[in-house]
Design brief:
The protein has 35 helices and 30 strands. An 8-stranded mixed β-sheet has the order 22-21-23-24-28-27-29-30, with helices on both faces. A 7-stranded mixed β-sheet has the order 8-9-7-10-11-12-13, sandwiched between helices. Strands 1-3-2-4-5-6 form a 6-stranded mixed β-sheet, with helices on both faces. It is α/β, with parallel strands linked by helices.
Length: 1001
Amino acid sequence: MIDEEALQAHRGRAMSPEAPVLRGTSQNPDVFFQAREAVNPYYAAFPDVVQQVMDEYAAATGRAYSLYEYYGARDADRVIVIMGSGAETACETVDCLRKDKQKVGVLKVRLYRTMDGARLVAALPDSIQSLAVLDRTKEAGADGEPLYKDVITALAMAKGRDMPTIIGGRYGLSSKEFTPAMVRAVFDELTVKEPQNPFTVGIRDDVSHLSLDWDESFRSGANDSSFQALFYGLGSDGTVSANKNSIKIIGEETDLYAQGYFVYDSKKSGAVTISHLRFGEQAIHSAYLVEDGEANFIACHQPVFLERYDMLEKAAAGGTFVLNSEVPVEQVWDSLPRIFQQHIIEKQLKFYVIDAYRVAEDAGMGKRINTIMQTCFFAISGVLSQGHAIDAIKAAVEKTYGRKSRRLTAMNMQAIDSSLVNLHEVAVPADISSTLESGISMPAQAPDFVKRVTGEIIAGRGDLIPVSQLTDDGTWPLGSAAFEKRNLALEIPVWETDICTHCGKCVFVCPYSAIRSKAFPEAELAAAPETFKSIQIKGKDFPQGVHISYQVAPEDCTGCSLCVDICPIRDKSNASRKAVNMVEQAPLREAEAANWAFFEALPEYDHAAIKLNTIKGSMLLEPHFEFSGACVGCGETPYIRLASQLFGDRMLVANATGCSSIYGGNLPTTPWRTNAMGRGPAWNNSLFEDNAEFGLGMRIAIDNQRGRARDLLKALHRELSDDLAQSILDCPESTEAEIYEQRERVAQLRRELANVGHPLAEVLQPLTENLCHKSVWIMGGDGWAYDIGFGGLDHVLASGRNVNILVLDTEVYSNTGGQTSKATPRGAVAKFSASGKTTGKKDLARLAMDYENVYVAHVAYGAKDTQTLNAFLEAESYPGTSLIIAYSPCIAHGVDMSCNHIQQNLAVNSGHWPLFRFDPRKGDAGKNPLKLDSKPPSIPYREFVQSETRFSMLWHTHPDTAEALLRQSEKEVSARFYRYQQLAAMEWTPPDKEAESGGES
Ligand SMILES: Cc1ncc(C[n+]2csc(CCOP(=O)(O)OP(=O)(O)O)c2C)c(N)n1
Ligand code: SF4
Ligand code: SF4
C-alpha cells in the first residue's frame, strides 16, 4: 500500500549537502503568519487522503473504516459522538438498547485533525434530536471539551440542518472504567427535557454536581457467551506475565477470540494485580473490566488476599474458584472467610486448592508460582483440552528460558507436571461454618483522612470516592504506608538479646525500615507486653538504665532476610544461629504486632546525645521513610531511609520520576512520614527532565526568604528580648544540639513577635521558619542523572548552591523495566542493548569532581556501611553542592536480591564500583580532597560479571561478543582505578598559593 514515488519524494526532501536548504529559521512578524497559511492546502487535502488509504486497506484486507462512522439505528433520535476504545463499548450498548426498540446510535470519530466537519455531519442520521459528545479529557477553565466544540462548529456550519440539542461530557480520564451502564446513562440523559450540560459520567461529583447516575446492575449481554476469568496476583509475582502468555496460547492455538486487561497500581511489589481475561467465539468489543457476578473462573494466587478482597462477588453462578493455599485440603474450607463460603455455596461454585508454594519449592523454583497457577487454569477451565494446553505451556517455557538456562527450563517443566498432581477439588459443605471476616479496615487510631480516603483506595474502592473527599490542591498527608499492613512476609526476623552486640547493621540495611532500634529508659518497660524484648545497651556512650530494643514491624516486613544476612554475630555453640534469625511469621504475628505498637510509642532518645557517625548511634534515629512499596530487597531504599533518619526533620525532597518517585509517592500511601512533633520531609515530584533545577529552585526560594528574614530580624532586634536576634543570627546549626537550640529560639521569637506591635513583626512572622536550617535533597535514578536530567544536573553542580544530590544508580532505567542508560556498564544486557552494551559506563563522579567545589561520594552501603554513613553526613554538612552516587542493586540485575550485599562486595572488590569521597573542604585546607575508600581490585572482574544474569546471559546468546566486551571492561576497570589512585595521591596546592607563587616568579 505504500506509494513508492511519494516515499522517494519524501526522502528527496531530506537534509543533504547535495541539495542544501536551510530549515528552522527564526521568523519575524513580517512573514511568520503567511508561512503558517502556506500549509493550508495540505491540511485541507488530508481527510481525502486518509479516506482513500482506508479504502485501499479495505480492498486489501476486507476491514473497512471511514473517517466518521455511524453505527446504530438509521432513524436514531439520540446519538453519542465519541472516539477511541470507548466507542466499542458504546456500540455494544447500542446493540442492547436497540433490542429494546430504542432509537439510538453512535458516531465514531476516527480522524480528529484535520477535522472534516462536513463529512462528520453527513455521517449523522437526519432524524437525530439530541447529541451527546464524549471527551476523554478535561481542559480546566474551558467552556467545553475539544470534540464537543468541534461537533457544535460542524453542525453550526452545516447548511440546511436544524441544530439538535447538544451536550458534552467527560468520561474515562486516566483509564477510568466506562461501561455499558454508563453509556446507557448518557442515552437516558438525552431523553430529559433539559439535560445536564456539561456532564461527567463514571464518577460521583458531589461538588459541582455534574455527574450522571448510572445503574450498576445493567449489563449489555455482550459477554453472555464468552468465558470470563479473573486472577488475583501479587505485583511482581509473575501472574500478569503468565496470563499474557495464556492469552497468546489461546489466541494462537485456537479459533477463539481473546482479550486481557491488567489492573495494577504502580507499586513495585506487594500490590494486588488483577488480570481480567475474556475468551469467546464471538469478537470481543467490551473495552471494560469483567463485571460483578460475571467471572466464570477466579484464581487467588496469594492466600493473604482472602483477608482483604471479596473477590467472589465477581463470580458468576456455577463458576470455579482456585486458591493457592498451604492449608491441607481437608481443612481449607474452614480457613475461608465467611463471605467466601457464602458465595461458594450460594453461587454453587466449584472450589479447587493447590499448595503452589510447596510445588514451586519442590521444583527448586523458590517462590515462583506463576507457571504452576497457569497450569491449574488450563487444567480446570476447559478453555483448551488439558493435553493441548500443557504442551503449549511447556513450549512457551522452552521459548522463554531454553536459550538462557537449561536449569530454569527443567525446573519449570517439573513444576508443570506436579501442578496437575497437587491440584485438588474441595468438597463444598452445605452450610457456612466460618466466623472469619474479610475486608480491609483502617485501625481506629488512623487519621480521619486515612479512614475516609486512603483506606478506601487500599480496599479497592477508590472508584467510589466522591469528588468532595479529594484534595483540590494535590497535597496528600504523610505517613500513610504505616496503615497499609501488607503482611507479605512468610518469615520475619526475630532478635536474640543474648548474643547481639547492638551494631545496628540490620537496621542499616533494611530496605523497608521494618526493623528498628530504639534506646529508652528502663522505666518505660513497666507497661511492656509480655514478649517484648529489650536489654541494657552496651557501650560507654549510654548510662546504666538505658535499654535498647530491636523490634520488627511484623506486618510491614517483606521477609527479604537482608537483616539476617548482614548480621555479623553467630552463636559460638550453634553457628547457624545469628543475633537475628528468620522465623515463620504467622504464629508470631499477633504478639509481635503488639510489641511493635509498644515500641512505636516509646519516646525517642535525645538526638543530641547520639553519636551520629556510628552505625549503632545513627540507627537509633527514627526514619522518616518507612514501609515503601519497593521490590523485595531493593537496593535504593536504604539510602533514602538513611538520609531521612539523619536529616528528615528538616528535609525538602525534589524527587525525579523513577522507582523512587513511585515507591515514594504512589497513591494510596506514602512511606514518607513525620515525627511526633509533626516535622518531616516535604516531598515533591516534578518531571524526569527538570528535577535538579526543581530542587535548586527550592534552595533559592528558601535562601531568599532566609535573607529577608535575617534582614527583618536585624531591623527588629531592639524590640526583642536581650540577645535573641543576635543568637539566632550567629547560630551555626552544625550539630543536632545547635539545630534544636535554634528551633527553640525561633519558637521564642514567634511568641515575642506576636506581642511586638511593630509593623515589620507581621512581615517577619511567616518567614521565621527559614531562620532554621533546611536541607534540600535532589534524588533520582541514573536514567535521570546520567541521561535525561543531566543538563539540569550539570547546571546545579555548577551553581555551587547548598543542595544534596542523591543518585540511586541501578545502572538501568529500572522503573520502566530496565532500559539502557549511560550508567549501564559495558557488556550488560538491558533493553535497547539486547546484544550487550558496547560502550562503557559514564564516569559521573569524575565529571562532577572537575568542578572542584562539589562534594562527591561514590558509595555502596552493603560493602562499607560506615563510608556510606560518613558520606551522607559530610555531604549534608558541606555548605555547597554535594553529589552522592549510590550503588543500588536492583531486580533488573538478575541476582537473588537476598544476596544483595554479596553483589555489592563483588562490585567493589572487582573494581566495578570503587568507593571514594572528594571533599573540597580538604582542598581548601591544602590537602588532597580525594580519599579512596576501597582497595585496588582484589578479585577478577570476570567473577563479578559472571555472578549477575544481566552480564552472564550474553554468554548464552552471544558468547564471542560477551568475551570481547569483558576483556575491554577488564582493562577499563583497572585503568579507572589507577587514575583515581593517581588523583588521590596528587600533591594538592590550594589555588591561592599557586597564584601567590605565580606572582612571585
Ligand atoms: C521525559 C520522560 N521520559 C520518560 C518517562 C518515563 N519514565 C518514568 S520513570 C523512567 C525510568 C527512570 O529510570 P531511572 O532514572 O534510572 O530511575 P530508576 O527507576 O532506575 O530508579 C522513565 C523512562 C518520563 N516520566 N518522562
Ligand atoms: S527481613 Fe527484610 S524487610 Fe524484614 S526486617 Fe529484615 S531487612 Fe527488613
Ligand atoms: S530500583 Fe529495582 S529493586 Fe528497587 S524498586 Fe526499582 S525495580 Fe525494584
